[in-house]
Design goal:
- By secondary structure, the chain is mainly alpha-helical.
- The chain has one domain.
- Helix content is 76%, strand content 0%.
- The chain has 3 helices and no strands.
- Helix 1 crosses helix 3 and helix 2 crosses helix 3.
Length: 109
């Protein structure tokens, strides 16, 4: 159980750190290029999913400078970070299974 918790923490940290980098790469890639198609396909779908969840939770969006107005983009971005976290977790678990190397934060483990 402790190993899964460590893997989840690593996945969360890597997901949060890689999100701004990938958004930057996607924003500065050539329109119609490989990076645009790859990250655009992943990030657009998850953003729309998160934004749609906000519309389900708050059906009537209020005017600007209210919580209801800003919750849509927040949940859209959160969905993107959760997607990256899932991708990182799958990669970490695959590497851990292949190498049998324990992922550690400190010497106590």
């Amino acid at each position: 159980m402790a190993q899964l918790r460590r893997q989840l923490i690593w996945a969360f940290l890597l997901g949060c750190l890689s999100w701004p980098l990938l958004i930057f790469i996607w924003g500065h890639s050539a329109r119609g290029g490989l990076a645009d198609k790859l990250w655009g396909g992943l990030f657009s779908a998850t953003y729309v999913l998160g934004h749609g969840m906000a519309h389900i939770i708050f059906p009537n969006e209020a005017s600007r400078h209210t919580v209801r107005y800003y919750i849509g983009p927040f949940l859209g971005s959160s969905a993107q970070i959760l997607l990256l976290m899932a991708i990182w977790l799958a990669g970490i678990r695959l590497i851990m299974r292949r190498t049998r190397f324990p992922l550690r934060f400190s010497r106590r483990s």
